[in-house]
Amino acid sequence: EPMKTWDGQGHPPSLDPEGIRRIDDSLLALSDEYGPTIDVVDRSGMILDSIKVPEYFRLTDHLSPPRTRGTFPNRGMEGLAVARNGRILIAAMQGPLVQDGRIEKNKCLGTATRWFVFDRQSAQAQEWVYRLDDESTGVSEVLAVDDHRFLVLERDSKAGLEAKIKKIYLADASSASDVANIPSLGDGLPAGTNALTKRLLIDLMHPEYGLSGKSTPEKPEGLAWGPTYPDGSRLLVVCFDNDFDPSRESIIAAFRIDSL
């Protein structure tokens, strides 16, 4: 669509809301990967507030010149988390911004992905870096554990025997640096700058889960907390996207997490 069809908040003509989180009993947060945008909506779906995302995050094909900076198509704000009782919104990019990677064979490659972190109370923003396992993966979802720890769903885009990485990491932002003033991460993080740390929590392709081998689904896409049990353990729900293909199963897997 031509740029003139976009609204003043950077919304494209249609939305692809990849992330949705409950802020409180009356409000939800939505992230869209083709703006990218972050909106606060009420329970009827009415947009009440649009979080200003920096221009250098805008979809690159709608910038002039194109593909020199911004979000590469289909690699935008895929994951969304809410922390501090709805005060903090954390939007995770699926892949690197163009200025943080490189374009080869119509793909934007790299391992440094930015998380846009917005404080709704102070209206202040910062950015953290999450390092992908390798250039074949992307972030599909992020879920808050507490104010500084997050579950991250990282996967490749292969199914069946070609699939290699479908993992859930526990990431920690305690020592993560604000990289908002660093224009490019293509040459790596500057000295003294820290990315989020991460450790493997669940390998979804472990044989005991029945999601490996020829039956490996391509798209684990969503994470949500279920109830907390009397012993303090929690239910983690993982959903798999079938891309509206009726020949593919829509899978919902549940894990009991003893401690984090």
Task: Describe the protein in words.
The protein is mainly β and about 260 residues long. The protein is about 0% helix and about 40% strand. The strands form 5 sheets. It has a 4-stranded antiparallel beta sheet with strand order 1-2-3-4, with no helix packed on it. A hairpin with a 4-residue loop joins strand 5 (about 75-85) and strand 6. The termini are far apart. Mean pLDDT is about 95; it is low at about 1-5.
Summarize the structure.
0% of the residues lie in helices and 41% in strands. It has 260 residues and is mainly beta.
What's the SSE blueprint?
Elements: E1 17-22, E2 27-32, E3 37-42, E4 47-51, E5 77-83, E6 88-93, E7 102-104, E8 107-109, E9 112-119, E10 125-131, E11 138-144, E12 149-155, E13 166-172, E14 197-203, E15 220-228, E16 234-240, E17 252-257
Antiparallel strand pairs: 1-2, 2-3, 3-4, 5-6, 6-9, 7-8, 9-10, 11-12, 12-13, 13-14, 15-16, 16-17
- N-to-C CA distance: 45 Å
Q: Which shape, going by the Cα principal axes?
A: globular
Q: What is the count of β-strands?
A: 17
Q: Proportion of β residues?
A: 35-45%
From the helix content, strand content and strand pairing, which structural class follows? mainly beta
Largest sheet: 4 strands, antiparallel
Please give the share of residues in helix: under 10%
Given the structure, what is the number of helices?
Answer: 0
Spatially, the strands of the biggest sheet line up as: 1-2-3-4
What letter string, H or E per element, gives the SSE order? EEEEEEEEEEEEEEEEE
The pLDDT mean sits at 93
Catalogue the unreliable spans. Answer: 1-5
- Rg calc: 18 Å
